TrEMBL record:
Residues 61-216 form the Dynamin N-terminal domain. PANTHER family: SARCALUMENIN (PTHR43681:SF1), TRANSMEMBRANE GTPASE FZO (PTHR43681). The keyword Iron-sulfur does not apply. Keywords: Coiled coil. Residues 311-367 form a coiled coil. This is Dynamin family protein. The keyword Coiled coil applies. InterPro entries: Dynamin_N, P-loop_NTPase, TRAFAC_Dynamin-like_GTPase. The lineage of its organism: Bacteria, Pseudomonadati, Bacteroidota, Chitinophagia, Chitinophagales.
Amino acid sequence: MEQKPILNAAHHNPASAAGEVAWVSAVEQVYRLSEGWVDEALLRELHAFRQKALEQRFYLVMVGSFKRGKSSLINAMLGVDLAPVAVVPLTAIITLFEYADEAFAEVHFNHESPQRITLNEIAEYVTEEKNPQNIKRVSYVRIGYPAGLLRDVSIVDTPGVGSAFEHNTQTALSFVPKIDAALFVCSADTPVSRADLEFLQTLRAHVPRILFVLNKADLLNEKELIDILQYNRQQVNAAIGAEDHFSWHVVSCKSPTGKYAVQHLVTSLQQLIRTEKKQILNQSLRHQYRLLYNQISMQLRLQQETLLIPLHELEQKQQQLQQSMSLMQSRQEEFESLVNSRVRYIRQQVDETIQSLTQQLRRQLQEKYLLQSSRVWEAMQHQGFQSFQEQQTHQLIEAFQQVKSQLEQTTRQQFSELLETYASRSQTFLHELTQHLKSLLGVDFHLIADQFDLNVYTAFYFDYGKGLSAAYIPPPFWIRWMPASCGIKQYMRKLYNHYQQLLTTNASSIIYDLQYKIQESFRKFQYDLHTHLELLLNRIQQIIDDTLMHRREHSSQVQQRFSAIEKCLHELSAWEIG
């Protein structure tokens, strides 16, 4: 395939020159031209880009929904348990694994200096249990280890779908430029969902290479594995294109040897790095360079446009902008209130469904063990006490399994539709805001808004409690010395109370788990949206405020500053990707 020229000035083309040297030279020139004109966050991103190009770092990001076994897979790939494995969601914190001659772990905070910790302390910072809602303000955790695979590639672990791309905090912004390939992890017991496929479409726009892993192969037999693999392939190919012939690797972290050993995946990754690293890195650098360049140009053009507006009009526009933002945020808050009520309704449905089942089972147990105790006693003697109790436990499990399947389908669909509606409305809100800013200030802000894709939040995983289990309760030895009816009733009452407790414990566990997943997913969704809006609006407001201050203090230098920006834009255009 013919590659189009990437720069206006041919002699500046980093893609056609000597790889990392050309990219470093290009970004250094852009940095020089941008310094003093754009904000510090953007300059830090330029610096991170330069380091990546200079060191030729190759970053492999692990993505996939919760409970697909990403952390377990990383541990199997490295041959050591470094990534914490949790039965509850991890916080939205990125963990970076890189090569080091001696093992270490380092926590990077949002506003504090990095802190060295032991490998055993990692879970204290990245798990929801030890660091709920990231109250410790962790930016990311960096782990070094002398693993052979890490000589070729640095691995980025993401807790749940999309956190490395859509969580618009300083952490995500600093890591997105470094991602070169993605390992999309599916689980053999869960087919790819519509939300997975939507996220893959977003992922494909950011990452040059995507590889697929079907994890937990040990859960299915050979025929079932073939069926789920074929289904997943068809769904993925239909969503993002069959022409790419994406590679799939079937693995089991519990099988160190054999057909599904993780080592086969490691070997394929190492082969990919040896043969295609340079090409993939160049695609990744090209993509990020274009994003950075567009953001720099947008900031410079905004400053230039504000210089052309008469001072009194600029002050009026500042007030109009503040009023518009307040109005739009008010409209958004009203909409969020409606959505929150809908979330509460879904949670209430979960509670009512489980409670209804529990009450039904309680009545059955009461009828069986308290009102028909003699008949049940005879059945136990005939069948065997332990066998009878195992059968009873199995019946309860089946009842919960049936309602679980119904809830899994209906609740997931309701919540997915709700978030899709919210995402659509929020995207409209962002679009309205950027259009208003364009008409108000004459600058197109879609370059920032388009970086925030909300589709991925329609995916989350349900884990239904601990399951039902019961220890065998034999009849007490003293029952033979008591009147038959009295002893039997006491034993039946004991069994009844035991099963009542099992119902209460497991019903509560299921309700809590499902309601927590719904509320937590929506909370993170809202947080990410508000963070993005705040960053966008604060950046615009700061540019206007700075311009006003400069205009008031240096009114005679307006033309000089305008000309300086014009010159900067002209010189910058020589480094634009075409």
